[in-house]
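During the no-cost extension, the postdoctoral fellow (Dr. R.K.) reprocessed legacy sequence entries with the updated structure-token encoder. One reprocessed record is reproduced below for audit purposes.
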Amino acid sequence: MYKKLNKLILISLIISILLLIIIFLPRQNNIIVEILRIIFGSVFILFLPGYRLTLSFFKEKEIDRLERFALSFALSISVVPLLTFYINLLWVKITQLSVRWVVVVVIVANIIYLKWERK
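Re-encoded structure tokens follow.
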């Protein structure tokens, strides 16, 4: 079970790094790059934080893949805006960069939590 969880953590970490590289690329006039930015940015904002949260809230056998997939979208759509508005209360303006960093913090915090929980 721990090997499978380690594999999931490693895969989601690699995907997060690749998505960050693609999202933080400077804007270009190439339509293919812009389409990739939109697709990967949507996955990064709308799916990945919720997926990380479902890994920390539910154990591997508690819910199946379809439930985890649906909960990932629901949790991402609820957690990312909520945390963004909370950092707005700390006088940080809501920009694309601040939202990206909120997502990065959620993902990294969940990775640290899962590593700490297993020890």
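Helices lie at 2-23, 31-46, 48-57, 65-89, 96-118. Residues 84 and 90 are 10 Å apart (CA to CA). The remaining legacy entries will be reprocessed before the final report is submitted.
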